[in-house]
């Protein structure tokens, strides 16, 4: 249904109505009001959600939007509290134009005005909601405004295109059921200059709930479908705290999985926003602390390395490096266990001085690290007491020589590559780097980003291995799959091949 227009009802009972207007087709997603529940898994959350009333998918004729295409999408989301006794005046129209306050969403006669009453909660709730939205959209090239774009300079200025997210009023003021929590136009391609509604006065005053609602409704205009993932704002599933657009392939769906409305079964919310808006700022890395062993301790073979890590986005993974080489990776904890410590068993290593480094990443690969030095047994005295290929340096450490392999160089093992990535494609192995498919400039000239799901790898274009598409053509899905099999890795985290004796990889805003 790429290119079709859709109207999405967020966490609400859908009041049945049909409206015929000329243009493209709209898909109305049936949405139910959620009762907040705790649960450990997506399916459990979905099975425990109280369904108030269900509606089938309804196809409606729909309006053209002001402009389409990622290149034309505004980089401003204006969150409108409809301040003042008069609130906001929205006119029902077959056209959708945020600059002229026109929307096809109100369930009233063509040309009739509706009034949306002002945000009814405290200044503190408003500030926290705006802060949250700025944090949620921080990784993307878009700004969250809570004053009309251009109005501060000239009250008559209406020239600044924007996405308008009304955070105020109730659905009844638009002629809809008061049980509707939010509504927006949705499309498989980004659309510009449209209005979404998040009915704060019947949803709040929980700022997490309000932030979730506005994030979901506003993101529909950038091409996002609903996600069956509690951590993502595109979800219907309650709980999981503050939600962020996730850098992972998640099933589409509301209370169960379904095919995505724009094709396929899964969606990467983060990558879709990157494609629509471009990159913004990297979020802060996780907080990290190694709690055991302590610096300068003498340790034995049975030592456990323990660390604590936390991140608002959740910790995606931890990596254990010893003397500069990656030995183990551990996946981050689920939301319910996010406060639990992480433990690594010490690898089987010869006696020597060990620089233990733990790195913690969130799902966008923002990384923090902490390093401490301990001694296992005694410092090494010569390379003869180290692993094959290691040297005993002047500090009593068994270390591997620094890697020299650059992108595209032939390699035998990950330790040969500066990137620590040495996938095998066909009959050759080359140093590689991770890239994000669909974004320009991810790989240098003469390299291509081979795509598979939500990640990719840079590989020389002229190379014709088992996964190469050959000169002059892009990789086919079969070649992409074969590439993964040849490389022996699955997106993130990237798995390194073992060699004998080598380490392996076991928001504050103004109210007016």
Describe the structure.
Strand 20 and strand 21 form a beta hairpin. Helices cover 12% and strands 26% of the residues. By secondary structure, the chain is of the alpha+beta class. The longest helix has 15 residues, at 123-137. The chain has helices at residues 42-48, 123-137, 200-203, 207-220, 269-277, 477-487, and strands spanning 5-10, 25-29, 58-61, 67-68, 76-80, 88-92, 102-103, 113-116, 143-145, 163-167, 182-187, 191-192, 195-198, 250-253, 257-258, 266-267, 287-292, 298-299, 304-310, 317-322, 325-331, 342-345, 352-361, 367-376, 391-392, 398-399, 424-425, 428-429, 434-435, 447-452, 455-460. It contains 6 helices and 31 strands. The protein has an 8-stranded mixed β-sheet with strand order 3-2-1-11-13-10-5-9. A 5-stranded mixed β-sheet has the order 18-24-23-20-21, with no helix packed on it. It folds into 3 domains: 5-277, no CATH class; 287-399, Sandwich (Immunoglobulin-like), CATH 2.60.40; 414-487, no CATH class. Helix 2 (123-137) packs across helix 4 (207-220). The radius of gyration is 26 Å and the shape is elongated.
